[in-house]
Fold this protein.
Amino acid sequence: MTPSTSSADADLNSACPRCRQPFRCGVSDATPCTCSTLQLSDELRARLAARYDSCLCIACLVELSTMAPPAIDPPAP
């Protein structure tokens, strides 16, 4: 870790492909990832798998889980 890198920054190991924000993906951790606590429909899971090659951050997953289809891409700025 460099002096300019905080310990919180060191925990961020991925960038969300949807919002581009850094986040901590725990899919390879010994304990369950935070995303495993979310209830995502089979339809949403299939659509996410078809659209993205990697994990999304918890903020995007929470947002998508509460939106009506087909809101997978973030709103245009």
In short: The chain has one domain: 10-66. The helical segments are 7-10, 42-51, 58-66. The radius of gyration is 14 Å.
